[in-house]
Amino acid sequence: MDDKTILPKHIAIIMDGNGRWAKQRGLPRSAGHRAGIGQVKAILNAARELGIEVITFFAFSTENWSRPKKEVDMLMRSLNNFLEREIKGLHKNNIKLRIIGGGDPIPDYLQRKIKEAEEKTKDNTGLVVLLALNYGSRQEIVEAVKKVVDAVLAKRIEPQDLDVDIFGSYLYTAGLPDPDLLIRTSGEMRISNFLLWQLSYAELYFPEKHWPDFGRKDLEKAIEVYQQRERRYGGISAE
User: CA 135, CA 208: separation in Å to the nearest integer?
Assistant: First the structure.
């Protein structure tokens, strides 16, 4: 990555391929998920060192509850263990952790750990790390619409004043820049109900590597690809 002056402010990542990574090695899916969760630390540290402002990891969707209970339970425990290990390090490195999604049916023990991590890091001013957990973008948008309706009925806003900025203030990511770059590992080319509103003008990058193999050099390569693209936001090319 040669040009550090043109960086995406916000990188969103769909961490795909943990199960396939494990299968290729003759390991259970749980081993792939554990390896994937461990890779989160490496990538968020790389993002912090590179000067990225916000990074979002898609950890668990609202649709993932349909997976086998044993696998879901293992994922919840692994996420809890990750937070237990990393809270002090996140705080020491001035990283602010926020969960988007959340709530039931996430186990109580994990919800408590999430609140602890968010509370401890809430005043930090460095890299913002969003963990999308029990998250679905359609649900987020519906919740935002309900909040807008409540605000209109309470006469806090007038319907004619509603615009994209006001609507965005009712989303989970309120106050943060929209993603400039979406990375989905494992070669899959889908958004999968992730940040549908926020990704409107993001550059999309789909590396073939499975998530547990996606390291700092791969992140730098993704940023290089981003830097080579011309973002026109609906306009015409400058050439």
Answer: 24
The CATH number for 196's domain is 3.40.1180.10
94: which DSSP letter? T
d(CA 69, CA 142): 27
pTM score of the predicted model: 0.93
The residue written with tokens 């940040």 in the block is: 195
Structural domain includes residue 126: yes
Whether residue 21 lies inside any domain: the answer is yes
As given in the structure block, the two tokens for residue 129 are 């790390």
Counting the structural domains of the chain, the total is 1
Distance between CA atoms of residues 41 and 212, nearest Å: 11
Of residues 61, 18, 52, 20, the one with CA closest to residue 38 = 18
How does pLDDT run across 95-116, given as a tens digit for each residue? Answer: 999 999 988 899 999 999 999 9
Catalogue the active-site residues.
Answer: 16, 64
**Position 30 in a domain:** yes
Cα gap 53→8, rounded to integer Å:
8
- Is there a domain that residue 149 lies in? no
- pLDDT tens-digit map of 116-160: 999 999 999 999 999 999 999 999 999 999 999 999 999 999 999
